[in-house]
User: Fold this.
Amino acid sequence: MEALTEKQIRGSFVNCTKGEATRLKLPADFGELPWEDLDFLGWTDPGAPLRAHIVLPRQDKPVGITLRVPSAGRTSAIKSSMCQVCLTPHASSGVTLFAAPLAGAAGREGNTVGSYLCADLACSLYVRGRRQPKLRAGLHEETLTVDEKITRTLGNLTAFTDKVMGLR
Assistant:
């Protein structure tokens, strides 16, 4: 992913107001992000821990979506789960259901779409083997190349983003 400026990031959001985009906090390590290892930028808002954001490069310009994170008090009886974007298996605490308000009038009426994603939104790092999930025992290794995994991850995230934008 090419490095983005703060202005590009704030101007990319499709499912929140301009005021909300202006007030969101960028990742604490924004100046040191490993852009060359990222397929998209994903982070939990340091100023609002129940909000997260994803900015995905698209053909013409980046598209940002705001996500809601369940409160920390929720727990799951599930022992393991899989991210629906990068297909990385995790212990149950490694995957979170994120809900995104739909863009436009539907979102203002409270309509959302959700997806189970890596809780730290570091799918790009898991796909490249730069970060390992806590759940490793008994896993089957995929035969896809890293490039094929990246393509799959971007396709899954694009499909989710399209749902948020009302394109699917």
User: Anything to note?
Assistant: The chain has a mean pLDDT of 90. The chain has five helices and seven strands. Residues 6-165 form one domain.
